[in-house]
Write a structure and sequence with these properties.
The chain has about 240 residues and is α/β, with parallel strands linked by helices. The protein has one domain. About 40% of the residues lie in helices and about 10% in strands. The protein is built from ten helices and six strands, in the order αβββααααααββαβαα. The protein has a four-stranded mixed sheet. Strands 1-5 form a two-stranded antiparallel sheet. Helix 6 packs across helix 7. The chain is globular.
């Protein structure tokens, strides 16, 4: 178990967000113009349920491969996931720093792949295909990826489009985790998107990281095409 800002669980009002982050987001949202609504930040999902913080998918404290992104997207996947009690519990435990040793990334658990296939099909699909091609059992391959890879977001709260104003108090933890991974030669940090934003938030060496060559929604895919110069290193840490 690792201590996280959410180790103690939800607040008395049922929300996961800390007061400092909530105050900042509320101030930001209150000043949005109607034409900027797509930049609104959310800490509840569409049904009104408190959003489980999405700072990471997987265990960013010891995963061998860390993929840096910006923040979770507003998605129906959360609605489907929260409707499955076991999966919701896995996501909550992940936020608390209590990762399942078999599937630290709850979205790669069979229940997670069914409720929210984006993580498996888009981000890690090529890695899974590679492992299966090397005669790994398909389910063991998902467990291996869930253990050895993690997504790390700069902000844990969702929006339809990113704004630098989404950098909030809890973003300091993402910066700290990214720096720790970069300092460990056994680990590999990849940048899917947001070099300028990560640098602005305090990751001053963001410009030295391997950057995805993908465009828009393809940036988050860990593939030989997106990371041609790092693919050998990625596979070495995966296998």
């Amino acid at each position: 178990m690792s201590f996280t800002p959410w180790s103690h669980g939800k607040r008395s009002d049922g929300l996961w967000i800390c007061q400092e982050d909530k105050d900042r987001i509320d101030r930001y949202n209150s000043k949005l113009r109607p034409e900027d609504e797509e930049y609104r930040m959310y800490y509840t999902i569409e049904s009104g349920q408190p959003m489980i913080p999405g700072m990471w998918c997987g265990n960013p404290y010891d995963a061998r491969i860390i993929l840096l992104m910006l923040n979770p997207a507003v998605s129906e996947e959360n609605e489907r996931a929260y409707a499955i009690p076991e999966l919701k519990e896995r996501l909550e435990n992940s936020a608390r720093g209590q990762w399942d040793p078999e599937y630290p990334n709850a979205w790669l658990h069979p229940l997670g792949r069914k409720a929210g296939p984006w993580c498996a099909t888009v981000v890690f699909g090529a890695l899974h295909k590679h492992l299966v091609s090397k005669n790994h059992d398909p389910e063991e391959a998902w467990s291996r990826i869930a253990n050895r890879c993690a997504i790390l977001e700069l902000s844990p709260w969702a929006s339809n489009k990113w704004s630098p104003n989404a950098i909030i108090s809890s973003s300091y933890l993402s910066i700290s985790l990214a720096k720790a991974a970069m300092a460990d030669k056994r680990r590999l940090v990849l940048l899917a998107r947001g070099e300028d934003q990560w640098h602005m938030a305090g990751l001053i060496d963001a410009d030295t990281l391997p950057k995805s060559k993908g465009v828009r929604s393809n940036q988050s895919r860990i593939t030989p095409a997106n990371f041609p110069d790092s693919w050998t290193d990625i596979i070495a840490r995966l296998e």
